[in-house]
Amino acid sequence: MPVETITIKDFETDDEIAEIDADGELRTSDEEFKKLMLGLTDGGGAVPRRTADYDEEEEAHITRIIRIAPGEQGYLHTVADCLPSPYKLSYERSEGYPDLEKPPMSRLKRGEGDDSEDEEAEAENEE
After folding, report:
1. pLDDT digits over 44-102, tens only?
2. Structural domain boundaries, residue 54
3. Number of structural domains, the chain?
């Protein structure tokens, strides 16, 4: 049975500051964390996930960024993976983290929801 909610902890203060469910509902009174999540999700709830290809020396090369939206398989796993320090998953309150569903490999390989072209264009415009 997939995990439905994760708890986020600020490891600098050791406080549990937020809960996020599989539908993207954020429950927190921490304004700084709310702003961080809005920036991370571009206000739409979807979180970025980098995909990589490996060369002969087994070095990873980021090939594209896809967005995993609330309700999609792998959403909570992706949220937990992309939290910046000092925010991390509270393992005590988020039982089954290893059981969090990952995004389907077929989606990662196909590049469905691929945002890399937009990011490449933005990088070229900045130069």
Report:
1. 788 888 776 777 777 766 667 788 899 888 888 888 888 888 998 886 665 555 556 66
2. 5-126
3. 1
